[in-house]
Design brief:
Layout: H1 3-36, H2 41-47, H3 49-69, H4 71-88, H5 98-126, H6 136-193, H7 215-235, H8 238-245, H9 251-271, H10 283-305, H11 310-339, H12 345-394, H13 400-404
Helix pairs in contact: 1-5, 1-6, 2-5, 3-4, 3-5, 3-12, 4-5, 4-6, 5-6, 5-12, 6-9, 6-11, 7-11, 7-12, 9-11, 10-11, 10-12
Length: 406
């Protein structure tokens, strides 16, 4: 590895870290502050609807845009949009209608997915192209992606804490100004240090080429959609409401526990390559870990149906689910870069994360409806079914032996 490649990787990672902290913080700030303003839970949930919807659109178009103008530019556009979203919320309370905040959150959703797509695709491109084919380079790519992805999720949990702490210390608008100033400094440093042409294709990418993916990328993207739908169908609404209404936890305890869960989830992602030291994961690995994940929500549902202690069932099950889900997510993040064409990596990764955002959107919508009609047990059975669908689609992913066959 050259010193230049390592420097570019560190700049991309640091930029992604800074953005992720603001992303977690702004979510916590919005939830807590608008609760204090008297917004209902439904109104607060609506504030994030455009955040998820625009994530789908951004990932679809962002890869094509990056192929035309470069990954560094799309990453910097994302950071600038996040600064704008933060500053939009510093207006007087009288301006903070549901529609206005939804617009600010839509801007933040676009920013987040531009930044994520750019950072993930950029990791592959800062590796020397001659290093990529097979063997030790695959293991290195998996390790780098796992560190980037795991640290991002851990820092999103840190962002939850930062948002709550800043709200207590300097208030809502003071917190937003501090976060936007921090991100502005990182943006300037990144613009100076990163080369201008990362990820820009030598040809003029046409928008229809976003969909011209290899079969492995299409099957993996479908599996990713159902995997993240399986998480959010019980995690977004059902879990926090159940912990509060049934288990009897206070709001601060629910928020703190979920923040720690996200941090632990990220740590497991970063360590996932240790499970694959003999060889990087392939389609067989994706099937095995998806089936292992499906067992957990099913076991939790059976435990609750048989009236086991709900606190032990939910907390213990959530911890195990987090570990196995983190491994699934980490190996998917490696496989998309492994399958991606070097010259189309931005578009391939953008298409894949469009499926990721679609899974989050489906899971978020289902979570409220299923919990209201079927309770947490229903959410867990839906989660099991969605994971099994992800495993079924993974059957079409090639094994390492198949990929190596000419």
């Amino acid at each position: 590895m050259s010193a230049v490649s390592i420097r570019h990787y560190l700049v991309i990672t640091a930029s992604y870290w800074a953005f992720t902290i603001t992303d977690g913080a702004i979510r916590m700030l919005v939830v807590l502050y608008f609760h204090l303003l008297g917004y209902s839970p439904l109104e607060i949930a609506l504030l994030f609807l455009f955040y998820e919807i625009f994530g789908v659109v951004t990932n679809l178009t962002g890869g094509w845009l990056a192929a035309r103008i470069g990954l560094n530019r799309t990453m910097h556009i994302g950071m600038a949009l996040q600064i704008g979203a933060l500053l939009m919320l510093t207006v007087p309370d009288a301006w903070l209608s549901v529609a206005y905040v939804m617009l600010a959150q839509a801007l933040s959703g676009i920013a987040k997915d531009l930044n994520k797509m750019s950072a993930k695709a950029g990791v592959k491109l800062v590796l020397p192209q001659s290093d990529n084919p097979q063997g030790g380079a695959d293991a290195r790519l998996f390790r780098w992606v796992a560190i980037l992805t795991g640290s991002k999720n851990a820092l999103k949990g840190v962002g939850f804490f930062v948002g709550g702490l800043l709200l207590a210390l300097v208030g809502f608008r003071g917190a937003l100004l501090i976060l936007s100033a921090m991100l502005a400094v990182v943006l300037v440093v990144s613009m100076v240090l990163l080369p201008l042409e990362i990820g820009k294709t030598k040809f003029k990418a046409k928008f229809r080429q976003v969909f011209a993916n290899t079969p492995e990328i299409n099957w993996l993207s479908g599996a990713r959609l159902f995997l993240f739908g399986a998480r959010d169908v019980w995690f977004v609404v059902g879990l926090p409401v159940y912990l509060t209404a049934v288990v009897g936890w206070d709001n601060w305890k629910v928020g703190g526990f979920l923040a720690l869960w996200v941090i632990g989830y990220g740590a497991v992602q970063a360590l996932a390559p240790q499970l694959f030291r003999n060889r990087p994961p392939d389609g067989v690995s994706a099937r095995f870990w998806a089936l292992g994940l499906a067992v957990l929500p099913a076991a939790m549902a059976l435990g609750l149906m048989n009236e086991f202690d709900p606190e032990w069932v939910v907390v213990g099950g959530l911890l195990l689910f987090g570990v196995v889900f983190a491994v699934n997510s980490a190996l998917h993040s490696y496989l998309i870069l492994h399958y991606a064409d070097h010259d189309k990596v931005a578009m391939n990764v953008g298409f894949y994360y469009m499926a990721n955002a679609g899974g989050r959107l489906v899971g978020t919508v289902l979570s409220g409806w299923v919990y209201q009609t079927q309770g947490l047990v229903g959410c867990l059975w839906w989660s099991t079914a969605l994971v099994l669908l992800a495993a079924a689609l993974s059957l079409r992913l090639p094994s390492a032996k198949t990929l190596a066959t000419p």
